[in-house]
Design goal:
Layout (H helix, E strand, L loop, with lengths): L2 H9 L10 E12 L4 E3 L4 E2 L3 E17 L4 E4 L2 E2 L5 H14 L6 E7 L10 H15 L6 H11 L11 E4 L12 E3 L7 E6 L10 H11 L6 H17 L3 H20 L10 H15 L5 E4 L5 E6 L3 H7 L4 E3 L5
Parallel strand pairs: 5-7
Antiparallel strand pairs: 1-4, 2-3, 4-7, 4-8, 5-6, 8-9, 10-12, 10-13, 11-12
Helix pairs in contact: 3-4, 6-7
Bound molecules: ligand 2P0.
Length: about 325
């Protein structure tokens, strides 16, 4: 029996039934303290804890319904089962169904503007997890839903909530303590902006990229402990609503992750020249007195974090940016 099968046998009843059609929404999220590297690929367990901010109304809505045969509609287009995105989704559903057939009709759509260039597997797997929980009439508690969503995508474990969310690394070999928890705090002035950058051909997947970094980057040795420390320090800064501490920590953590990737052999480089040009603009705006900080993930886009009082500075230095108010939108 596979390790993942053993976990699902522990978390779910042996027999499921599709009790009803169900819809769910989950927001996308941006990590301020990054997840990069797995300690167990079968159970998708991370090397380090991570901390994110959810993107409010930018996310995924998914409807699951009983059907005569499996069917997947993604952004209004029916996807064949062997399309890469469909395969990931049906593999995840197979973990739930195990030996049962339980055909499903799945209609899923992202609410993220295409121009933002943020395809989100995090919101997709989180919305699907919530919809399946309701369709199968399970009412699992949030910690279990987060553990399950983690099997779709690590970052999906954080997308079950709005606001700031921390995914604890955990220590247990079976992953039972590796799930996310929301931080009990609203910070209405907190803002994120997405600065879209021309990404060109699709970059290496996060999954492959983090494996390659862990195996070949001499800098990876220092990453897990640094990331754990950053995560704890950022949580404290968020709870104190201390942006002067949080902003520099988030930017440093993102750059340390990219430096670790760049030191992989061969190098892994998600940032493009245009991403660096955006970073130069961020540093220029800071030199002019605006508290704007940058974070970047497994792609060329740059995300800005700032407080509402820097909105005018962001609008003038980054007219192309899409601004999100995570506690209002
Ligand atoms: C994060 N990223 O913390 C980091 C920062 C990208 C850079 O989580 O293999 O899609 O499915 O667990 O969650 C993207 O990786 O990877 C990611 P898997 P996932 O947001």
């Amino acid at each position: 029996m596979s390790e993942a099968r053993a976990v699902f046998d522990r978390l779910l009843p042996a027999r499921l039934r599709v009790a009803r059609a169900a819809s769910a929404y989950a927001p996308a999220n941006i990590a301020l303290s990054k997840y990069w590297g797995k300690r167990d690929t079968a159970l998708n367990l991370p090397q380090n804890s991570s901390l994110s901010i959810s993107l409010g109304k930018w996310g995924t809505t998914t409807r699951v319904a009983p059907a005569a045969a499996d069917r997947l509609v993604f952004n209004e287009e029916e996807l064949p089962a062997d399309a890469p995105a469909a395969r990931k989704l049906w593999d995840f559903i197979a973990l739930w169904r195990r030996d049962q057939t339980l055909p499903l009709d799945i209609v899923t759509a992202n609410t993220i503007p295409t121009a933002a260039g943020l395809a989100s597997s995090a919101s997709g797997f989180a919305a699907l997890t919530r919809a399946l929980d309701e369709a199968f009439d399970l009412s699992l508690d949030a910690a279990l839903l987060s553990q399950i969503a983690r099997f779709g995508s690590g970052s999906a474990s954080r997308s079950l909530w709005h606001g700031f969310v921390r995914w604890n690394r955990g220590d247990a070999a079976d992953g039972s303590d590796s799930f996310a928890v929301p931080l009990e705090l609203r910070w209405p002035a907190f803002r994120i902006a997405i600065v879209p950058v021309d990404t060109g051909p699709k970059a290496q997947s996060s999954r492959d990229g983090m494996g390659h970094t862990l195996r070949t980057s001499p800098l990876y040795e220092t990453w897990p402990a640094q990331a754990e420390a950053d995560c704890a320090a950022m949580e404290a800064a968020i709870m104190a609503q201390d942006f002067a501490v949080l902003g520099p920590l988030a930017e440093a953590n993102a750059l340390a992750m990219h430096a670790t990737m760049m030191a992989a052999r061969p190098a892994l480089m998600y940032l493009k020249p245009a991403s660096w040009a955006v970073l130069e603009r961020v540093w220029g705006a800071r030199a002019d007195g605006a508290a704007i900080f940058a974070t970047m993930d497994a792609g060329a886009n740059v995300k800005l974090i700032f407080l509402a009082d820097a909105l005018d500075a962001v609008a003038s230095a980054f007219p192309e940016a899409e601004v999100i108010a995570p506690f209002r939108d």
